[in-house]
Amino acid sequence: MINIGIIGMGRIGKVHLQSITYHVKNACVLAVADPFMNSETEDFARSLGVKKIYKDYKEILADPEIGAVLVCSSTDTHAAISIEAIEAGKHVFCEKPVDHAVEKIKAVEEALAAHPQCRFQVGFNRRFDHNFAAVRKAYDEGRIGEAHVLKITSRDPEPPNPAYIKVSGGMFLDMTIHDFDMACFLTNSDVEEIYVQSAVLVDPAIGEQGDVDTAIITMKMTNGALAVIDNSRRAAYGYDQRAELFGSKGMAATSNDTLSTVVVSNAEGVTGEKPLFFFLERYMESFSEEMRQFVDACESGGQVPVGIHAGMQAVKIGLAAKKSVEEHRPVKLSEMDA
Amino acid sequence: MINIGIIGMGRIGKVHLQSITYHVKNACVLAVADPFMNSETEDFARSLGVKKIYKDYKEILADPEIGAVLVCSSTDTHAAISIEAIEAGKHVFCEKPVDHAVEKIKAVEEALAAHPQCRFQVGFNRRFDHNFAAVRKAYDEGRIGEAHVLKITSRDPEPPNPAYIKVSGGMFLDMTIHDFDMACFLTNSDVEEIYVQSAVLVDPAIGEQGDVDTAIITMKMTNGALAVIDNSRRAAYGYDQRAELFGSKGMAATSNDTLSTVVVSNAEGVTGEKPLFFFLERYMESFSEEMRQFVDACESGGQVPVGIHAGMQAVKIGLAAKKSVEEHRPVKLSEMDA
Amino acid sequence: MINIGIIGMGRIGKVHLQSITYHVKNACVLAVADPFMNSETEDFARSLGVKKIYKDYKEILADPEIGAVLVCSSTDTHAAISIEAIEAGKHVFCEKPVDHAVEKIKAVEEALAAHPQCRFQVGFNRRFDHNFAAVRKAYDEGRIGEAHVLKITSRDPEPPNPAYIKVSGGMFLDMTIHDFDMACFLTNSDVEEIYVQSAVLVDPAIGEQGDVDTAIITMKMTNGALAVIDNSRRAAYGYDQRAELFGSKGMAATSNDTLSTVVVSNAEGVTGEKPLFFFLERYMESFSEEMRQFVDACESGGQVPVGIHAGMQAVKIGLAAKKSVEEHRPVKLSEMDA
Amino acid sequence: MINIGIIGMGRIGKVHLQSITYHVKNACVLAVADPFMNSETEDFARSLGVKKIYKDYKEILADPEIGAVLVCSSTDTHAAISIEAIEAGKHVFCEKPVDHAVEKIKAVEEALAAHPQCRFQVGFNRRFDHNFAAVRKAYDEGRIGEAHVLKITSRDPEPPNPAYIKVSGGMFLDMTIHDFDMACFLTNSDVEEIYVQSAVLVDPAIGEQGDVDTAIITMKMTNGALAVIDNSRRAAYGYDQRAELFGSKGMAATSNDTLSTVVVSNAEGVTGEKPLFFFLERYMESFSEEMRQFVDACESGGQVPVGIHAGMQAVKIGLAAKKSVEEHRPVKLSEMDA
After folding, report:
1. Integer angstrom CA distances of residue D243 from A238, C263, D151, D230
2. Is the pLDDT of residue C338 over 80?
């Protein structure tokens, strides 16, 4: 049994609190901290058995009863708090992205190098999604042979509000970053080169923020496979999350999850349900699974399923994507190291 | 918040304990009782916060802190314990079937008539399954017009062991009873007449117990719709649970749930996953939902979603099915009242 | 190359003329006959290369150039013309049903016994449908093991006009007769016993003609399998033609054909196309294939794929179905021999 | 009724001969010509009613009875023969590509400008495919709003032999050219810019010919939509031909055609059929439809459905694709005019 402290009690912090309480056997949340802690959040936490409620996350880091922390604070604090926690001897689960700057992620890498016992996991929860995990499993089992072409479709049901876009780092670092990690996960490879063709087709207000809302992103993976991601900030039929891995021996493809399998046939046609509404519905089970595997790694000292390398890769790919748009050319990932 | 006592801690009692603990907000399990209570079960219950562990269910009935009981004991005790609980002033959730004998269910009806404040729910959990509920919803919304033909396919992945078959009351009262209730639920109607064509095709040992393992069951519903259930005790591809309601304006049909939507295309064909293994996998969420609705009815004093009428109907249909096989003729449900 | 004469130039006679002209290599239609031959039909036939146009079918039977005839006249003349054609030394393709009366089909059997060189095929075209043939193939290949439960869904888009119902022999001999033959084909077995639960739910005018428009038909096959057919004279979404064969090792199931595979996802849902409109659309290719196989049997002297036994079975089953409705009981097929 | 002459009796010439004979009402093939005419081809043509069999296509051009010619000769002769035919006053159906060189297609454009009465159609048969036509129809009907992202998957079951690759102009001008035209057709737009990421993953021998066998091709359309094509020369599960058009109001997507809808469920999974084998199976009906529409345009003097502009566009896009690979950068289509 490991005691966990959650730093940051926004939406995702609450999701993890519930997951651990209800779905992770060998862990419990002992403490939560949030600078904006209010009575509502406190009541919520207490109703789930949390004993220590703080405003200052440093109280969690100082608590010797706590073995692991979840860094769910705002993105700009992820790296700094992670380093503090590593140095305080805690295992760390850090929400994505670790940071928008390569330098700051490198600092985390260095802290980890100095604390090899620390289990450090990045919150790419979609790797634990039942559908995407099944694609990877088919690949690992050799059912599709060597990877040739990966296709990921990732479309949100609604764009975020324009204010959020400004602080989010833009579509590639906020939304596509999950797809970049998924590309690496499904092909079991890193990215070598990227090219982006993008546009503002959903809402001109997004363009006014200097961002795009629609994109086709082509990547060459280091293992030779090609990959393509297509993104849109708004699909009229809801959250569209699919992947298709094509290889020398076959293809593994997923379709969207729905609330039920019911299909109504009538004079209008043969109609099934739209996809589950958004990420909290579609990926809820994956949040539990990533916690179970993080806790297992902490307890066993084994490897975490998503380490700092993945966290660095995804950000570098996102930055390369932005550069590709700015310079209108294919960009090698190695350019990001310069 | 209502305190619940669970009588009978076999497989289904444990399922309900977990559901209430993790998935029902306004209820908690205060006590459990089982004549065969052992340390393993006790540990399991205590790990989920149960404070009172008994061998004798009468201790639960006598506890004034407990507002509702779940009757999860062996089928032959359902009716008697339910009546005791009703008379002790508890709300009652009774597992299916209430009993194999119409007379004993009538006794429960009488006890309920004498205690009108009692909320009494029967454990037909499949009514709360996302797929079947979606069929009924489509019907209620008028998307398929008046019900003409209902088709239910219900096949188990494996037959029970022969010893169980003897005490189970046979396929119709043990397995098909869920489908009988589903037929009433989906057409929102009772059964008027039934005819069964059955066979022993899966395992001769089942026939030696005087039971059948394969059947096609035709029913005329009181609202004029026709219904057919096809049953098998063993589907090589797993648990097959589908329904299709055809009406004057269209059809609502469900397919099986699977662990993922992944489809592998290769030289052998285009292959998706088999259905979820068995009822604990397929119907797990429905067990939580039936508890939520039971607790809500207890708290609000509103109507339970599955009352004693449904419990009586399903047993009468099952007994009529047996009579149809014995006498090789259509049997009217009114014959069961004689 | 065999010369063919078509007797009866109604809708189905014209279909066969086109099939043979365009899709059957080793045959040509030399002559057509119809008592109501008009200039439109004559022009149509001539445009497809037919050289001899008659009112009287006896001219076809007398023509030594003609090797095979298709009997596409009205049902009440099928048996008599078939016998004449057999005795005239022609091979015969007879549309279904051969007749409504067992006695008259027996007379055809006798004529065939006296002319063993005659290839006599009955027009159960659905056996040649790509979907149903694929179910049978899966069964023959052992992919689903021994047959346990066959399910056929057969629903028309619209009922025929009431006037036709009167002369058609009723739903079982007109519409379901195809499904009866399909049940025998897919299980590779005859019927032992039948029970029908039926109703008038589509149109009271059909009931006024003494017919039904909705039915669930249960059969026990001679090989032990159970079978069920559900019929409706009107499906709001169109022509619904599906089959599902469940066996000891698995299941083979078909869905409906559509004009395209396109699926539109939008705010309303995920919508595919309705089934192909009616039998001329859905089964067009099967009409060509039955002709090819008939011509092959004539040319090679090999066995026809659908012989007089199938023609007799389907009618007996249809008559037993009517008796089951009248007497409200299961009826053995052997009763039809009395 | 129009008389047609077919120039070139290779595989595609024979396909058109059959289509016109069996499936086009108001046309007949009067003459065929092929420099390698042999007795087998002659017999085939005569069996379908062709009266004039030539080695020299000029005899067809000189024949006043012939109103339209199909140019099905080798690609390097398409443009020259087309021009001769135009000048001889014939309507022309020219197989794709019109040529590999922009200059030569311009010469055809000029000939057409000088003969405005000539109906000139290019053989992009896939526009007439039932699935792709249904996507375009959904778009035209406004069911998916404005086009945002088009995705085309196009994979062959087997690569051509290496010798063919050399003369074919490479994958982009031989195979992808159909997809380029499809991109223009489905978005109802031209291409503005293209970027190709490609690889040799299927067979090194293809790379040795200087060609690629796997590619992801991104395009910006002139109407602002983005488009992506993924190609492979070998899909282990067969011919994979899908398209998905995503827009402001929804998405229209197609799946592959199969020989039947049968799905077998057994211990291995739930398995449907592989796609139809190759283009002759999948697109056979589209060859008939393009002929019907060509003949209609010739007869009515109306517009052809696929004119010289489409023929030019597809070649320019293919050449731009090659340039993008060579120069490893996005290429504007306007560069092809230089």
Report:
1. 19, 11, 6, 10
2. no
Label the pairing between strands B214-221 and D250-253: unpaired
Helix, coil or strand: residue B242: strand
Q: What is the mean pLDDT of chain A?
A: 96
What distance in Å separates the CA atoms of residue B127 and residue B283, rounded to the nearest whole number? 10
Identify all chain D residues contacting B267, using CB atoms and an 8 Å cutoff: 236-237, 274
Q: For B117-134, what is the mean pLDDT?
A: 98
Report the pLDDT value the prediction gives residue C300, as an integer from 0 to 100: 95
C165 falls in which pLDDT band (50, 70, 90)? confident
Asked whether C283 and C129 are in contact (CB, 8 A), the reply is: yes
Q: Does A261 touch chain C (CB under 8 A)?
A: no
**What DSSP assignment string belongs to D135-197?**
HHHHHHTTSS-SEEEEEEEEE-SSPPPHHHHHHHT-HHHHTHHHHHHHHHHHHTS-EEEEEEE
- Give pLDDT tens digits for C70-99: 999 999 999 999 999 999 999 999 999 999
User: Within 13 Å of residue C309, how many CA atoms lie on the same side as its CB?
Assistant: 10
Closest Cα partner for D240 from D214, D268, D266? D214
Residue C337: Cβ within 10 Å count: 9
Cα A178 from Cα A170, distance rounded (Å): 13
Segment D241-261 mean pLDDT: 98
How far is the CA of D135 from the CAs of B270, B292, D185, D255, in angstroms? Answer: 23, 45, 10, 11
Rounded CA separation A282/A280 (Å): 6
Share of chain A above pLDDT 90, in %: 95
Using a CB–CB cutoff of 8 Å, tell me whether D215 touches chain A: yes
Per-residue pLDDT for D338 more than 80? Answer: no
Helix (H) or strand (E) holding D79: helix D75-87
Which residues from chain D sit within 8 angstroms of residue B274, using beta carbons? Answer: 265, 267, 269-270
Closest residue to C264, CB basis, from D22, D131, D138:
D138
Give yes or no for a contact between D105 and D76, defined as CB atoms under 8 angstroms apart: no
Give the mutation candidate from C261, C271, C273, C286 for the D interface (greatest D CB count, under 10 A).
Answer: C261
The string of pLDDT tens digits covering residues D183-204 is 999 999 999 999 999 999 999 9
Chain A residue with Cα closest to B245: A264
Q: What is the pLDDT of residue C267?
A: 94
Phi, psi dihedrals of residue D196, rounded to the nearest 5°: -120, 130
Percent of chain A exceeding pLDDT 70 equals 100
pLDDT-derived band at D167, boundaries 50, 70, 90: confident
- What residues in C contact D22, CB-CB < 8 Å? 22-23
